[in-house]
């Protein structure tokens, strides 16, 4: 599928559904990137549904605690938990996953919302470009490390937990060059200083990270045995007012401001999509397995994703991602061997 500019505009001007509501009594909901923007607005919606536990995974203690307090003030929900994790630091991610593993609790909904919007190359201490590590290495690492908890929850409580990965319609407007697809270590190439500082690569970095979110969702779903009682999907919140574009300056910032005035959803409206992906189709959740969701329905992904070159890229990126994560966290190897085909 191709997404034209006019199709994008029509989607932004279309009437949006009200937020999906489900009784979450007894259940645990965990959101990455929960202290601001789409993550916080989605958290507010979940808080109104009486979850037993609502975990806000945030990078900053001060901002995270402020979010917990505002959540209580706005919704009356007083059981929110703040857990710290820095997705730009693999050690922090491992500590976060270890904590959840040791906590021993159930996990019914995991919404992976964290992202970085930048056009500047900046490496993490682990040696990868920051936005790619956050969105396309640490996000998969959290998903894989918490997958056993979700499967255990399903088995013990006869439920179908959901893993929701936030992507974007911008994946329709990006592909990966053939020489990069054919490189021996595709993820390392995409995250390297040599590649990122060539030409205008970083100008489209956000588009790439969202494409890789779609690839990971599809690759993970393809490797989960059909009998696995966990629904994995990816969702597009639409073009919303967002802090992701706070780096924009000059003409670019001015044009984006005009676009926001003409087209953007409020952050709350965009967050309804995340909630829909996590809660909709309660009577037929299989309809959302492995799917890309936008405007409260399943939609075909981009032509590039569906092409032979895209399929090749998806498999190579999956294998390269696993190679990296197995070295970062040895527990990944056992999880893959036990739960993935």
State the gist of this model.
The chain is 50% helix and 11% strand. It has 341 residues and is of the alpha/beta class.
Describe the structure.
This protein has 14 helices and 8 strands. The chain has one domain (5-11, 23-339): 3-Layer(aba) Sandwich (Rossmann fold). The protein is of the alpha/beta class and 341 residues long. It has an 8-stranded mixed sheet, with helices on both faces. Helix 3 links the parallel strand 2 (53-58) and strand 3 (80-84).
Keywords:
alpha/beta, 50% helix, 341 residues, Rossmann fold, 8-stranded mixed beta sheet, globular, oxidoreductase, oxidoreductase activity
CATH topology tier name: Rossmann fold
- Give the full name of the CATH homologous superfamily: NAD(P)-binding Rossmann-like Domain
> How do the strands of the widest beta sheet line up side by side?
3-2-1-4-5-6-7-8
Radius of gyration: 19 Å
CATH architectural type: 3-Layer(aba) Sandwich
Treating each run of at least 4 consecutive H or I residues as one helix, how many helices?
A: 14
Helix content: 40-55%
Low-confidence stretches: none
CATH C-level class: Alpha Beta
| Amino-to-carboxy terminus distance | 28 Å
What's the story with the biggest beta sheet? 8 strands, mixed
Instruction: Give the topology string: H per helix, E per strand.
Output: HEHEHEHEHEHHHHEHHEEHHH
Q: How would you sum up the global shape?
A: globular
Total domains: 1
What structural class results from the helix and strand content?
A: alpha/beta
The percent range for strand residues is 5-15%
Protein name: NAD(P)-binding protein
Organism: Mycena maculata
InterPro entries: NAD(P)-bd_dom_sf, SDR_fam
Keywords: Oxidoreductase
């Amino acid at each position: 599928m191709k997404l034209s500019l006019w199709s994008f505009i029509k989607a932004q001007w279309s009437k949006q559904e009200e937020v999906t509501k489900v009784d979450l009594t007894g259940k645990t909901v965990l959101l990455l990137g929960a202290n601001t923007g789409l993550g916080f607005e989605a958290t507010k919606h979940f808080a109104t549904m009486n979850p037993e536990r609502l975990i806000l995974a945030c990078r900053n203690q001060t901002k995270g605690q402020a979010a917990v307090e505002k959540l209580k003030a706005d919704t009356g929900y007083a059981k929110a938990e703040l857990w710290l994790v820095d997705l730009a630091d693999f050690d922090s991610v491992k500590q976060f996953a270890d904590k959840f593993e040791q906590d021993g609790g159930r996990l019914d909904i995991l919404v992976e919302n964290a992202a970085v919007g930048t056009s500047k190359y900046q490496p993490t201490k682990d040696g990868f470009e920051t936005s790619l590590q956050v969105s396309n290495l640490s996000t998969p690492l959290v998903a894989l490390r918490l997958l056993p908890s979700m499967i255990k929850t399903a088995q013990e409580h006869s439920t179908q937990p959901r893993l929701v990965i936030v992507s974007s319609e911008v994946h329709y407007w990006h592909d990966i060059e053939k020489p990069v697809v054919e490189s021996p270590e595709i993820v390392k190439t995409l995250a390297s200083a040599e590649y990122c500082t060539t030409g205008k690569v970083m100008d489209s970095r956000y588009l790439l990270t969202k494409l890789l979110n779609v690839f990971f969702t599809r690759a993970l779903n393809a490797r989960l045995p059909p009998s696995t009682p966990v629904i994995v999907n990816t969702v597009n919140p639409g073009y919303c007012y967002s802090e992701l574009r706070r780096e924009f300056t000059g003409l670019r910032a001015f044009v984006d401001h005009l676009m926001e005035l003409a087209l953007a959803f409020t952050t709350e409206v965009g967050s309804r999509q995340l909630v829909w992906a996590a809660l909709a189709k309660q009577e037929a959740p299989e309809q959302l397995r492995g799917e890309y969701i936008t405007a409260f329905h399943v939609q075909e992904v981009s032509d590039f994703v569906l092409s032979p070159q895209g399929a090749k890229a998806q498999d190579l990126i999956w294998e390269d991602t696993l190679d990296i994560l197995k070295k970062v966290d040895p527990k990944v190897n056992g999880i893959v061997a036990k739960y993935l085909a």
